């Protein structure tokens, strides 16, 4: 079973993609940057503020699928400046204390000149 997930509590995609796709019990979320749910730009903040907004966006998409941040099993994180890693990681760790698997890579550029982008994969862990 495949279902497209959309919520007005997260930014509308800026391209030809879905916020997330639910396949059986696994949710594949598109990358989020620091845009506010109303579409306004939240990119002027530092890496900590951008990461905080991204985690809010991810939480909203997860909630629309009946999940929570604790259901995330894998993240892929993109930073335009690895010198920001410590600040990014502090906010990231406060949102993902259960330590899902993670990749974190440097990217030369991100959409709308964002400093960070995070995508996640989550699964319904209610049976565990």
Features:
alpha+beta; 60s Ribosomal Protein L30, Chain: A; six-stranded mixed β-sheet
Task: Give an overview of the whole structure.
Helix 1 packs parallel to helix 2 (85-95). It contains two helices and six strands; from the N terminus they run βββαβαββ. The chain has a six-stranded mixed beta sheet with strand order 1-2-3-6-4-5, covered by helices on one side. The two termini are 21 Å apart. It has helices at residues 47-64, 85-95; strands spanning 2-5, 20-23, 26-29, 72-79, 101-106, 116-123. The longest helix has 18 residues, at 47-64. The model has no long low-confidence stretch (mean pLDDT 94). It has one domain (2-123): RutC-like (60s Ribosomal Protein L30, Chain: A), CATH 3.30.1330. With 128 residues, the chain is of the alpha+beta class.
């Amino acid at each position: 079973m495949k279902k497209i997930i959309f919520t007005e509590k997260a930014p509308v995609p800026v391209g030809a993609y879905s916020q997330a796709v639910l396949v059986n019990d696994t949710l594949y979320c598109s990358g989020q940057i620091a845009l506010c749910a109303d579409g306004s730009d939240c990119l002027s903040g530092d890496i900590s503020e951008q990461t905080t907004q991204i985690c809010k966006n991810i939480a909203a998409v997860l909630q629309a699928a009946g999940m929570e941040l604790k259901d995330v099993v894998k993240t892929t994180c993109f930073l335009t400046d690895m010198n920001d890693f410590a600040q990014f990681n502090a906010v990231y760790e406060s949102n993902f204390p259960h330590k899902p698997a993670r990749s974190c890579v440097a990217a030369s550029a991100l959409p709308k000149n964002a400093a960070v982008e995070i995508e996640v994969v989550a699964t319904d862990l209610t049976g565990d």
